[in-house]
């Protein structure tokens, strides 16, 4: 019995000496997650979903214009959205009206009848977040 008690004591001491995951750690993790979420533009998740569904085939998963259809879409090739310097208003117009209406590629379809106003705003904010240049501040309010 003496050996059993000694083993229990040793296990208890080892457990107490191990680093623990405390509520303070949970709080720090939650604060970090909230900070990351605040840095994302309004509608980021919705915009990412729309981008994957409608844009990724041409513009690629990272927005570099290297989607699967870029192998056959030439002159001009799909835009590299990471290098774009266009403002949100222009992005809204070209996504809504299509490339031809904006003097760009005939292959870029018009989506204005496909997306609601909020979906368009979310998609534009997501596309803007793909940039490798500093972003213009987003309007982080939802409008109906």
List the helices and strands and how they pair.
Blueprint: H1 2-17, H2 23-39, H3 44-54, H4 56-59, H5 88-97, H6 117-129
Helix pairs in contact: 3-6, 5-6
Give structural notes:
With 144 residues, the protein is mostly helical. It is built from six helices and no strands. α3 crosses α6 (117-129) and α5 crosses α6 (117-129). It is globular. The N and C termini lie far apart (72 Å).
What descriptors fit this protein?
single chain; mainly alpha; globular; 6 helices; 144 residues
Oligomer: single chain
Largest sheet: none
Coarse structural class: mainly alpha
Please tell me the overall pLDDT.
78
Radius of gyration equals: 25 Å
Helix content: 40-55%
Shape field: globular
Detail the poorly predicted runs: 10-22, 140-144
Which series of helices and strands comes N to C? HHHHHH
State which percent range the strand residues make up.
Answer: under 5%
Give a quick rundown of the structure:
With 144 residues, the protein is mainly α. It is 49% helix and 0% strand. The chain has helices spanning 2-17, 23-39, 44-54, 56-59, 88-97, 117-129.
């Amino acid at each position: 019995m003496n050996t059993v008690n000694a083993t229990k004591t040793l296990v208890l001491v080892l457990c107490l000496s191990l680093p623990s995951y405390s509520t303070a750690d949970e709080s720090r993790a939650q604060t970090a997650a909230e900070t990351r979420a605040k840095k994302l533009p309004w509608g980021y998740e919705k915009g990412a979903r729309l981008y994957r569904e409608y844009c990724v085939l041409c513009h690629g998963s990272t927005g570099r214009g290297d989607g699967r259809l870029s192998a056959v879409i030439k002159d001009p090739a799909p835009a590299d959205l990471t290098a774009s310097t266009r403002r949100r208003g222009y992005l809204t117009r070209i996504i809504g009206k299509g490339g031809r209406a904006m003097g760009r590629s005939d292959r870029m379809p018009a989506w204005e009848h496909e997306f609601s106003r909020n979906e368009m705003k979310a998609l534009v904010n997501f596309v803007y977040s793909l940039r490798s240049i500093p972003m213009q501040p987003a309007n982080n309010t939802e409008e109906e």
